[in-house]
Specification:
3 domains; signal; iron; Quinone-reactive Ni/Fe-hydrogenase small chain; Cytochrome-c3 Hydrogenase, Chain A, domain 2; binds iron/sulfur cluster; single chain; alpha/beta
């Protein structure tokens, strides 16, 4: 779409949203930003970064800033299933608040078990009330894998003994958009690792509504907030990859944008944690980095207010945003090499997947991976 017509389309969408009532008259994003010690300039810098993350031209920055102002028009229901709450933590547990985390203070979080004051019967009532009152209008975010089928009782919530599976189904029914936040909700995650005694599964397997997956263990706060903003701006679902992940966030492999990529291409590898190669920032492939098989934008968005990410800190990627990563990306500290595993591309293996998805830009990588897999076979055993 031409930049001008897209600009007009997004402007009209925001105009429509601005006609909806504010859910909390007392709060405004500019007031919140000021109270937390951010200047208008910092807010606009953040809006600029969000604009570029969503792959929009810089001239769209005022629209993104306006979307932030209107973020409280869309109520959010956040359900917890079987998980560690790491995805919520990714967003909220910040030493110093980021503007991303402020957005979560600002939006109308109608239901979030770990954040709301209500408990017991009242919490259940709040959920039912929010779903009824904002029918067709609320955004549903679900964190955690979902025990289902004959084993659904492994996750039983509240005084009425409702299963997580039933809650997820009920809440999905009338949501305006549904996002599976984190790998557990997107693909089953650690909960679904073999032998999976609770029969935990992805949200998309328990509802017939379309689900957008925002995987990661955890996903970065930017990917969670960016997903919300995409919906605020467009009112439609983003372009998705084969695993229903938004392409703007999961379109590139970790390996494609890795700061150690030059070392990989030069054949400079860490052979063992703590060796000279590790001290010199060499590539972590031979100590198990799964970056060549993993689609995510961690190298660009980073974690902890953008200060660092696993590969920068010296540990390889574990492939946490891929389906069944827990079972299929192991052993953590060994390269996959040319090991074959089942993928949606017909069980051809991760290298074949990478080849098919990015054949134009990845030819060198594919050759490199094959060569380095061969090298890893002659890797010296640890002392
Ligand atoms: S193998 Fe891992 S550390 Fe090496 S370049 Fe690729 S993503 Fe980076
Ligand atoms: S670097 Fe890899 S394991 Fe770490 S968060 Fe990103 S995708 Fe997950």
């Amino acid at each position: 779409m031409e930049s001008n017509s897209l600009f007009n389309k997004l402007s009209s969408r925001l105009e429509e949203l601005s006609n909806l009532p504010k859910l909390d008259e007392e709060v405004s994003i500019s007031k919140l930003v000021e109270e937390k010690g951010f200047s208008r300039r910092e807010f606009m810098t953040w809006a600029g970064a969000m604009t570029s993350m969503l792959m929009l031209p810089a001239s769209f920055t005022p629209l993104v800033a306006k979307a932030a102002e209107l973020a409280d028009r869309l109520p959010l229901v956040w359900l917890h299933m079987a998980e560690c709450t790491g995805c919520s933590e990714s967003l909220l547990r910040t030493a110093t608040p980021s503007i991303d985390s402020l957005i979560f203070d600002y939006i109308s979080l109608e239901y979030h078990e770990t954040l709301m004051a209500a408990a017991g019967w009242q919490a259940e009532e709040n959920l039912e009330h929010a779903i009824e009152k904002y029918k067709g209008r609320y955004i549903l975010m679900v964190e955690g894998g979902i025990p289902h089928g004959q084993s659904d009782y492994f996750l039983t919530i509240g005084a009425h003994g409702k299963t997580g599976e039933q809650s997820a189904k009920d809440a999905s029914q009338n949501a305006a958009a549904i996002f599976a936040i984190g790998t557990c909700s997107s693909f089953g995650g650690v909960q679904a690792a073999a032998p999976n005694p609770t029969n935990a599964t992805a949200l998309s397997n328990v509802t017939n509504r379309p689900v957008i997956n925002v995987p990661g263990c955890p996903p970065s706060e930017s990917n969670i907030v960016g997903t919300l903003f995409h919906f605020i701006l467009y009112g439609t679902l983003p372009a998705l990859d084969v695993y229903n992940r938004p392409k703007w966030a999961y379109g590139l492999r970790i390996h494609d944008a890795c700061e150690r990529r030059g070392r990989f291409d030069a054949g400079e590898f860490v052979e063992e944690f703590g060796d000279e190669g590790a001290k010199n920032g060499f590539c972590l492939y031979k100590v198990g980095c799964k970056g060549p098989y993993t689609f995510n934008n961690c190298s660009k968005q980073k974690f902890n207010q953008g200060t660092s990410w696993p590969i920068q800190a010296g540990h390889g990627c574990m492939g946490c945003s891929e389906p069944d990563f827990w079972d299929k990306m192991g052993i953590v500290h060994e390269p996959l090499g040319d090991r074959l595993y089942h993928t949606t591309f017909g069980g051809l293996g991760a290298d074949a997947t990478a080849d098919k998805i990015g054949v134009g830009i990845l030819t060198v990588t594919a050759i490199g991976i094959a060569a380095h897999a061969a090298i890893s076979l002659v890797k010296k055993p640890k002392e």
